[in-house]
Amino acid sequence: RTVEPLEYYRRFLKENCRPDGRELGEFRTTTVNIGKCLCSITTADGSALVKLGNTTVICGVKAELAAPAADSANKGYIVPNVELPSLCAERFRSGPPGEEAQAASQFIADVIENSQMIVKEDLCIASGKLAWVLYCDIICLDYDGNLLDASVFALLAALKNVQLPSVTINEETGLSEVNLKQKNPLIIRKHPVATSFAVFDDTLLIVDPTAEEEDLAAGTVTIVTDEEGRLCSVHKPGGSPLTGAKLQDCISRAITRHKEVKKLIDKVIKSITPK
Question: Are 88 and 141 within 8 A, CB to CB?
C-alpha cells in the first residue's frame, strides 16, 4: 500500500471491491444533524452538520439585511464560502483560502445559481430598498475525500433550517421594522444533491471516493441533480475523459442517490419539527 499504492488498489478493484470493504457503487454511511443541536453555531439562522464516512462538514447560514444592487433592485444575495482549515487534514495550511477551497466555493455558487434552489427575487423585501443577504459558511472539520457531496448536502440541510423574521418598511419613517416573533421558513424551490465519482484506468467508476482514492484516481466527476431528475451541473476538473455511456451511467446513479439523500433530510426535519 505504501510502495505501490495504485497497484494495491487495482488488486481490490479487479475483485469489484475497495480496501475499506465497500463495493464500487457503495456510499459511505451518511448522517445529518440539523438545527440548534449544533451548540457550536447557535448564533446562525440555520445550521447543519453532515458526515460522509470520516468526512465531516458543518454549514451555518447567517441572514442580514442590505440594500439591493442598483442593477438588480428586486434581488437579494447568497454568498457561499467553503473553508478548509489546517485542522481538517495535513494537506491544508492556515492562511488565506487555497485553490481547493476557492474552487469548492465557486462550485457551490454555481450549484445555487444553476439549480435555482433559491430564487434571489424571493429574498427581496422592498424593491430597490431592502433585501436579505444569506451568508452560507461551509467549514470542513475532517477531510477524507468527497468534499463537494458533503458541502452541497450540508448547505441544503442548513437552508431548510432557516427561519427569517418578518420585515416591513415603515412608510412614514422609511426605516425597516423587524418582527422577531413572526418567522417564516426560507422558500426553497429545488433540492440539489451532488454525487461524485472517481475514475480509475479510464473505465472504472467508483462512487463517494475517499481522499486516498481521489489522489490515486485518473480523474473525478461530480453530477448534481434535483428532485425531478433534472441535471443541474456536471463538474469535471480535468483528468481522464468519460464516454457518453459512462456519463449517462453516472447521471442515472446520481438520480438514485438523490432519492436517498432527500429521504434522509425529510426524516431528520420531521423528527425536529414541533408536533
Answer: yes
